[in-house]
């Protein structure tokens, strides 16, 4: 990591961050899109790469049509420049495609060269990955300056995230921290954080309304989830550009993010535990 950082400062190459997490549907793509859009809005040039080769959905989450895909680059049928696609807020993405045929032709090993090209042109390269522990996940873990793990609070997701961290460790990947997504007032964050054993970079509230309009940091900027993603992005910027360590950053979260207005008094008794334990 130190060697990586040194090289990065010398060459002024961009920071490569892989966003990973063992379980499907925990919010990896949502996190990539929102951190990307927030960093772009803050004035950094960001590209988000959909390296979830089996189940690519970055483009469709943003409602974007594309000319060429990562799959075509990895199959040797397109250049990186062909697949650079404009996304909301000035963000750039490299989308994937969904056909099984495209998946079969794409060679994950070629991703190294793609990322090398991108890191020379962008301040930040965010790599969105798929679930599981396959080769197509291992490759981007091995290419990253820093790995961000995303999990939801449930036991299975946390357990799968521990496995992703173990895979990262085997290939000398550097996990910079964890995001716990879809948190409610009942979530025992302290316990999850202890189980994971990594710095908690952000706690994102469950916010279904906001996540229907991605990127929510642009389309629902006043939402609770957008506030949380903005905070996360500031922490990421501190790590990417100022070399700060996650351990030195504060996990910023606000009590109001976790108050569900539809909750009634019968749930009051939970207030001593759950996420509110962090505020006492
Ligand atoms: N904080 C949140 N609150 C409510 N819904 C959310 C939140 N974060 C993500 N979601 C929703 O959860 C679903 C899965 O999110 P997303 O696609 O980002 O997960 P993923 O980890 O990338 O999944 P996959 O492993 O399939 O790629 C989406 O419908 C998304 O809108
Ligand atoms: Mg995804």
TrEMBL record:
Domain CobQ/CobB/MinD/ParA nucleotide binding: 18-210
Cellular compartments per GO CC: cytoplasmic side of plasma membrane; cytosol
Molecular-function GO terms, alphabetical: ATP binding; ATP hydrolysis activity
Any Gene Ontology biological process: negative regulation of cell division
SUPFAM superfamilies in alphabetical order: P-loop containing nucleoside triphosphate hydrolases (SSF52540)
Official protein name in the record: Cobyrinic acid ac-diamide synthase
Naturally occurring in which organism (per UniProt): Halomicrobium mukohataei (strain ATCC 700874 / DSM 12286 / JCM 9738 / NCIMB 13541)
């Amino acid at each position: 990591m130190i060697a990586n950082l040194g090289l990065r400062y010398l060459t002024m190459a961009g920071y490569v961050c892989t966003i990973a997490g063992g379980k499907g549907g925990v919010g990896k793509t949502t996190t990539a899109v929102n951190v990307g859009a927030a960093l772009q809005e803050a004035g950094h040039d960001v590209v988000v790469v959909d390296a979830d080769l089996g189940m690519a959905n970055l483009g469709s989450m943003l409602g974007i049509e594309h000319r060429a895909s990562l799959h075509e680059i990895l199959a040797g049928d397109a250049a990186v420049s062909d697949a650079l696609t404009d996304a909301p807020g000035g963000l750039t993405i490299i989308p994937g495609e969904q056909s099984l045929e495209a998946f079969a032709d794409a060679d994950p090993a070629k991703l190294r060269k793609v990322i090398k090209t991108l890191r020379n042109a962008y301040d930040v390269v965010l790599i969105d990955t798929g679930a599981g522990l396959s080769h197509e996940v291992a490759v981007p873990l091995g290419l990253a300056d820093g790995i961000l793990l995303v999990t939801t609070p449930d036991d299975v997701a946390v357990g799968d995230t521990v496995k992703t961290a173990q895979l990262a460790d085997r290939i000398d990947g550097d996990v910079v921290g964890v995001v716990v997504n879809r948190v409610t007032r009942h979530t025992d964050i302290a316990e999850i954080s202890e189980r994971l054993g990594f710095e908690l970079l952000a706690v994102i509230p469950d916010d279904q309304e906001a996540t229907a309009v991605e990127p929510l940091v642009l389309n629902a900027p006043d939402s609770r989830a957008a506030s949380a993603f903005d905070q996360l992005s500031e922490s990421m910027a501190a790590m990417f550009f100022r070399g700060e360590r996650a351990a030195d950053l504060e996990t910023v979260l606000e009590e109001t993010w976790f108050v569900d207005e539809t909750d009634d008094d019968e749930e009051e008794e939970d207030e001593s535990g759950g996420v509110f334990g962090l505020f006492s």
